[in-house]
């Protein structure tokens, strides 16, 4: 397994939803593991909030359903103005 790398808002703006979904999934496993083991360290709350912000944009069930618009999945979020 490749080394884990946290997402940043700046990086997420350069990636499409297609590219972000596996990254969000990997980071979710990371946070789940830390939370379940009680291993979140002081100061990591901001990183977790950033992750939640990105996740909300990428997989928000209330977002416009743009299945007919390929840009929804393939354009970087920054270009779509969504993050």
What does this structure look like?
It is a single chain. The chain has 83 residues and is mostly helical. It has one domain. It has 5 helices and no strands. It has helices spanning 9-13, 17-37, 45-59, 71-74, 77-80. α2 packs across α3. The termini are far apart. 11% of the residues are buried. The model has no long low-confidence stretch (mean pLDDT 87).
Summarize the model shown:
This protein has 83 residues and is mainly α. It has five helices and no strands.
How many angstroms does the end-to-end distance come to? 28 Å
- Mean pLDDT reading: 87
Taken together, the total number of domains comes to 1
Number of helices: 5
Q: Biggest sheet, in brief? A: none
What Rg do the Cα atoms give?
A: 14 Å
Structural class computed from helices and strand pairing: mainly alpha
Percent of sequence in beta strands = under 5%
Molecular shape:
elongated
Can you give the helix content as a percent range?
A: 55-70%
How would you summarize the topology of this molecule?
Elements: H1 9-13, H2 17-37, H3 45-59, H4 71-74, H5 77-80
Helix pairs in contact: 2-3
């Amino acid at each position: 397994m490749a080394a884990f790398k946290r997402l940043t808002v700046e990086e997420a703006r350069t990636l499409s939803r297609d590219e972000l979904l596996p990254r969000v999934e990997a980071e979710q496993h990371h946070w789940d593991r830390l939370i379940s083991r009680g291993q979140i360290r002081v100061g990591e709350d901001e990183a977790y909030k950033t992750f939640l912000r990105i996740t909300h944009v990428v997989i928000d069930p209330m977002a416009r359903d743009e299945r007919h618009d390929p840009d929804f999945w393939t354009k970087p979020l920054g270009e779509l103005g969504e993050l």
